[in-house]
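Q: Convert this sequence to structure tokens.
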Amino acid sequence: MDEIGVGVIGMGTVGTGVVQVLLENSDEIARRLGARLRLVAVADKDVTTDRGVDLPEGVLTDDVGRVLDDPDVHVVVETIGGYEPAKSFILRAFANGKRVVTANKALLAVHGDEVFAAAHEAGVDLGFEAAVGGGIPILRAVREGMAANRVRRVYGILNGTTNFILTEMKERGEAFDRVLREAQRLGYAEADPTFDVEGVDAAHKLALLATMAFGARVPFEGVFTEGIRDITPQDIQYAADFGYDVKLLAVGKSEGGRIEVRVHPTLIPDDHLLANVRGVYNAVYVDADFLGPTLYYGQGAGRRATASAVAGDVIELARDVAAGRSGRVPPRAFLEDELAQADLKLIDDVVCQYYLRFTALDKPGVLSRISGVLGESHISIESVVQMGRDAGQAVPLVIMTHEAREADVRQALGEISTLGVTQGAPALIRIEG
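A:
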């Protein structure tokens, strides 16, 4: 086959980037593919705005059927995001025998079982590398590079917005709200940043990554999720004093047949590779039984990085079109029939170390009463620091624990709040070493 047709749905930031790379690098792609990718149609509601890309005459259309129903389109690229009409468009493409590439992590995290089952039934492939980590080829590495391994752990900084905010809070000592406004001004955060700062975006990505890493269906609603709104510059500074950095970390672990998936602010040692991931960059750390630990780092968002990952999937699926085959590699790394529902560990059963910050009254006996409650709840203390002295007033009291069970820590914090020796809610940040 000398020419393979591509159709794109959506001409926003990602769609424009995909069109741009397919046009500008067409010769390079042909040298790798052995065939030409022809842009047959690009569908968008807005066909008048100048996107800065010169499309061939007649390619841009407001009729999505030009992409979904034209037999000359072999690979469909969906870039509109959201649940609907994106899901209906993808299912229609499958029904027409077309392969699909998407960066839509929310759709795949929430409705993935339906979408992947439809692709399997239709005998076509689905590429979604850009859905996790932007331009970082982490899914391809897990799917193919680690195919002979059992993955034990994955740690990911999967959201550039929150990583930028936490980096700026540490380096400038400014509060969350102020840094968020700066991120919005620079275009690193959306006008409504909820999905990013509350950890939802990272949880979508972790659900997909953990399913592929551990070979079991991890539902999005099973991912424990906390955001970064309550992180203060003081917590970041205190963590640094103990030798830690604060990151919004996606954590996935498989042990004894049970899978642990959670997204939350996390203290990690400041000499760990992930602690040095700054700004809007993403990184994923994977530990597999034969391969050992590996780290994948790069731009997690943006037009060019995401377009690079999407185009890579287009080329991979185009190779299969040219060869007249499909299903060479299972899209979720394991055969669909072999993916069981994950046995998820509840957050109450998670065991890790904890950073606890209390606003405690500066008077004799307070520390012993707090430590007494912790001891009764089977929580041992690694170190304690009282930040300043102000007799009779409230001062920060920071406690670092040894490994403890989440349910025990929560129970202890509830009891401490009734002692009358602290003010306000304590801060709790989990630690991964």
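The first strand starts at residue 3 and ends at 9.
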